[in-house]
Amino acid sequence: MTILEKIIAHKQMEVDKLLKEARLFDMSKQSVPFKNRVTTSNEVQIISEIKRSSPSKGDINTEVHPVTLAKQYEAYGAVAISVLTDTVFFKGSMKDLQAVAEVVQIPVLCKDFIIHTVQIDQAKAAGASIILLIAAALSKQKLHELYQYATEKGLEVICEVHQMEELEAILELDPAIIGINNRNLKTFEVDLQTTVKLASHIKNKNTLIISESGISTRSDALLARDAGAEALLIGETLMRSTNLFETYHTLKVSKVRRMHDAR
Ligand SMILES: O=C(O)c1ccccc1NCC(=O)[C@H](O)[C@H](O)COP(=O)(O)O
């Protein structure tokens, strides 16, 4: 069993529990716009992640206080905050997301493994403005169904791909936002060339491309930018940073190529 299969099996149990509880979720919270903030900016934007622990790296920063860190991320110019809400594999929670969404003005991404509409309701009620749908974890039909449902609820959706076949499946949806994950969720191998390769097949210029995972240096940011990414999803590098001001300064690049940008 791959780690992704293990995570999904566990998610199914969580979903069954949620459905059994038959909770009513408050779906009235207003979403904070995301895509437009990215596309209208002159800089490649950073989606900053709260990530205590991960299957590939183990504990990264378990001392972190999500609210304090989220406020710092916002102050340093994050365009959105990604909160890993999975507890078993990432030591996050929906409570983290709710606490973060209550204190920041920028959109919050529910970074989880969504396989059922009830999780979308839960994320929206907790204050998420964006959700993630992972192509590797969903059939094409399920992906389309969940995408439709989330957009009807006023959420923005990042459709995440890692392989060409996944990209082909989601291109049929012509999604507004595609996240290219440089990490293979089955082997944990990280390769930024994934962004370069897959972005070249996204022909719709209105599609926002996000490069996700393994971004730690300015040259990584420039590589993703040159491949067409307008935003970067960064977790570990920010979680391990001892000087967030410096780290943001290093990773924030202009959308326009400059002379001194040579990688
Ligand atoms: O990060 C992992 O080990 C992982 C394992 C299995 C499924 C998902 C995983 N990560 C989720 C992410 O996509 C990343 O947290 C996100 O892109 C940020 O990555 P990084 O900047 O490398 O921390």
From TrEMBL:
<comment type="pathway">
    <text>Amino-acid biosynthesis; L-tryptophan biosynthesis; L-tryptophan from chorismate: step 4/5.</text>
</comment>
<comment type="similarity">
    <text>Belongs to the TrpC family.</text>
</comment>
<dbReference type="InterPro" id="IPR013798">
    <property type="entry name" value="Indole-3-glycerol_P_synth_dom"/>
</dbReference>
<keyword id="KW-0057">Aromatic amino acid biosynthesis</keyword>
<dbReference type="Pfam" id="PF00218">
    <property type="entry name" value="IGPS"/>
</dbReference>
<dbReference type="GO" id="GO:0004425">
    <property type="term" value="F:indole-3-glycerol-phosphate synthase activity"/>
</dbReference>
<keyword id="KW-0822">Tryptophan biosynthesis</keyword>
<dbReference type="InterPro" id="IPR001468">
    <property type="entry name" value="Indole-3-GlycerolPSynthase_CS"/>
</dbReference>
<feature type="domain" description="Indole-3-glycerol phosphate synthase">
    <location>
        <begin position="4"/>
        <end position="249"/>
    </location>
</feature>
<keyword id="KW-0456">Lyase</keyword>
<protein>
    <recommendedName>
        <fullName>Indole-3-glycerol phosphate synthase</fullName>
        <ecNumber>4.1.1.48</ecNumber>
    </recommendedName>
</protein>
<dbReference type="InterPro" id="IPR011060">
    <property type="entry name" value="RibuloseP-bd_barrel"/>
</dbReference>
<keyword id="KW-0028">Amino-acid biosynthesis</keyword>
<dbReference type="InterPro" id="IPR045186">
    <property type="entry name" value="Indole-3-glycerol_P_synth"/>
</dbReference>
<keyword id="KW-0210">Decarboxylase</keyword>
<dbReference type="GO" id="GO:0004640">
    <property type="term" value="F:phosphoribosylanthranilate isomerase activity"/>
</dbReference>
<dbReference type="GO" id="GO:0000162">
    <property type="term" value="P:L-tryptophan biosynthetic process"/>
</dbReference>
<dbReference type="InterPro" id="IPR013785">
    <property type="entry name" value="Aldolase_TIM"/>
</dbReference>
